[in-house]
Amino acid sequence: MAWFKVDDKFHSHRKRKKTSLDAIGLWVICGSWSSDQLTDGFIPDYIAEDFGGRNWRRLVDALVASNLWVPR
What we know:
Number of strands: 0
Strand content: under 5%
Largest sheet: none
Distance between the termini: 26 Å
Shape: globular
Helix content: 40-55%
Order of helices and strands: HHHH
Structural class: mainly alpha
């Protein structure tokens, strides 16, 4: 069983502070999915869209801007 680990200091990390709670929610859900699917962090657009809803692109852009998400 794989795990998506979140540090116990994440709540005060500068990257987390740069983005919204909605974007963090997408990050956590996608991280969990990636861990379950063993994709080594890769999130296909259709998964981000499924979890992020109609604002998924805005949320991903916010995560990229905060350096929590690296586009491929």
